[in-house]
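I have been asked to look over a protein record a colleague put together. Alongside the sequence sits a line of tokens, each denoting a local backbone shape. Please read both lines and tell me whether the tokens look consistent with the sequence. Take the sequence as given and treat only the tokens as open to question. I have pasted the whole thing underneath without changing anything:
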Amino acid sequence: MPALFLGHGSPMNALEENRFVQGFRSVAKTIPTPKAILCISAHWYTHGTKVTAMKKPKTIHDFGGFPRALHEFQYPASGSPELAQATAGLITKTSASLDDSWGLDHGAWTVLTHLYPNADVPVVQLSLDRTKAPEVHFALGQQLDALRRRGILIVGSGNIVHNLRLVDFQNMQRRNHGFDWALEAQNFVNQQLTTGDYEKLVDYSKQGRAMNLAVPTPDHYLPLLYVLGLEHNPDTLKLFNNEMVGGSLSMTSVRLG
């Protein structure tokens, strides 16, 4: 199976019709129907590595201040205890525990509803261990690669440039609007992606002011490292939705394999 990193942006993308959700739908058409999905979402940021193992994950509305329709949105995909067990079994760089309390957070369902609108593909989430260094997250991606040969689609969901404190809310509708530092960070990351030089992306915190502003906290960036850790020829990597929003958010998404 190929693999994806999706810049998920605002939760409202679940309901809105725009060029970004069109990009999600378009890329789904290039992928064989998976047996199940393993999603690494920015919004499950935990102590320890966890895997959802319930048969019926709930739709989690982990946000506030949005319209009632978004708070009532349901994505009734089934879970997969079998995939949860297989995922935990592949991880040896750290210990992974099975979880029955989480579900599908908005980093997962707001994008998956456009890839698989019928919610007919089982979904399991893998959490981000906040205590682990970036190189460990990259290595975990390497360990998960075997799932792809079993028909599992691995999806990382976050945003490469994600600084909510600096968002220009007055210009959210302005097309491809990015601050200078945000564009510098976007261009830097894209260059490393297209050349297959991932070392600096793993060591992102030492790449200067632009990257430090782009990644003020690791949660939205780390899902990218899982996807880049998967086995692939860098020549097959393709960018889509490669635009800035609100000055300090990138919707850049990646398909590999």
Q: What stands out?
A: The chain has one domain: 3-256. The radius of gyration is 17 Å. The domain at 3-256 is CATH 3.40.830.10 (Protocatechuate 4,5-dioxygenase; Chain B).
